[in-house]
Amino acid sequence: MMRINRYLASCGLASRRAAEDYISQGRVTVNGRRAQMGVTVDEFDVVRVDGKQVRPIAKKVYVLFHKPKGIITTAKDEMGRKSVLDMVKLEERIFPVGRLDRNSEGALLLTNDGEMANRLLHPSRQLYKTYRVRLDRPLQQEDLHRLVAGMELEDGPTAPCRAHHYTDDPTKIELRLHEGRNHIVRRMFAALGYEVKALKRTQFGPLSLKNLARGQWRLLSPIEIVQLRRAAGASEADGSKIQDD
After folding, report:
1. What percentage of the chain carries pLDDT values higher than 70?
2. To 5 degrees, how large is the angle CA 144–CA 149–CA 155?
3. In whole angstroms, what is the distance from residue 21 CA to residue 26 CA?
4. Start-end of CATH 3.30.70.1560 domains in the chain
5. Beta bridge partners of 173
6. In the chain, is it the N or the C terminus that has fewer CB atoms within a 10 Å radius of its CB?
7. What CATH number does the domain located at 59-123+206-242 have?
8. d(Cα 206, Cα 218) in Å, to the nearest integer?
9. Which CATH class is domain 2-53?
10. Which entry of 50, 77, 101, 244 is annotated as an active-site residue?
11. CATH architecture of 128-204
12. pTM (2 decimals)?
C-alpha cells in the first residue's frame, strides 16, 4: 500500500508535489471515484489520470540536457512556445526536475522517476547547483561579501553561498548555492543593484555539463545515477529497473 501522491510519482507523471496538484484539481480517480488527498492504493486498484489508467513504471530513465536560452521548461505551454520536451525525444514520458527560466541556459535533469525528483527538490536535501553569471557592471567586493554571507529578499533571507570571480572579467561570477526559490540568482543580484545579462547553470548536484553542447542531451551513466541517488538520499533498492547503458 502507498499514498496516492507517491503512487502517481512512481508512474512517472511528475513529482509528488505536482501529483498533489492533479489530485486537488479532481483529475485523479481510484476505482472510478474521485481521489482524495492521503488515500492509499495497492496493485489491485485502478488509478486513472484524466480518464487514462496509469501504472508504476518498470524502467526509469535519467537525462542531462543542456537547455538553450529561449526554451521553456514546462511540459506544455498555452502560448505554444518551444519547450525542453520538444528537444528531448524519448519513448518514455519524462519531465524536468525543477526549472531554468526561459532566459537562462544550462544543466537540466529530466526523468520519469517522480520519487527521485521529489527527493532532489525537497529543501531538506540542500542539493547544490552551480551557476555562472555575467552582470551589467563589475561586482564590487563588498557586494560579493553580501552574497556569500546571505542577504534579505522580499520572501525571506538567503542562505550563505559560495561566490567568486572565475575569470579576470569582474562582471563574471560563479555561484554555488542550494536554494531553489524562483529566480533566486537574478533576484539576489537585483537586490544589490545589478542586472544579470547572462545566466548558465553548469552543475546540478553531482551532474556537470562538461562538454555537453548547447541543445544536446545524453542519458546518465550508471555511475552518475548512483551519485544522483546518493544526493537524493535514496538507495538502489528504492528504484525499479533503471535505464540500460
Report:
1. 93
2. 100
3. 9
4. 128-204
5. 133, 165
6. C
7. 3.30.70.580
8. 15
9. alpha beta
10. 101
11. 2-Layer Sandwich (3.30)
12. 0.76
